[in-house]
Design brief:
mainly alpha; single chain; 0% strand
Length: 41
């Protein structure tokens, strides 16, 4: 059972890490655009 469960857990962890990475990238780009607007003002 454990050998069957491990790959599945790894896949879910990979999906979570990818989602977190996209979320961090979105926040980073949003913050950078806000900073650029403040600098332009």
């Amino acid at each position: 059972m454990s050998t069957l469960e491990n790959p599945k857990n790894k896949e879910t962890i990979d999906l979570v890490s990818i989602k977190q990475g996209i979320y961090i990238m979105k926040i980073y780009f949003r913050d950078s655009t806000i900073n650029k607007k403040i600098i332009l003002q």
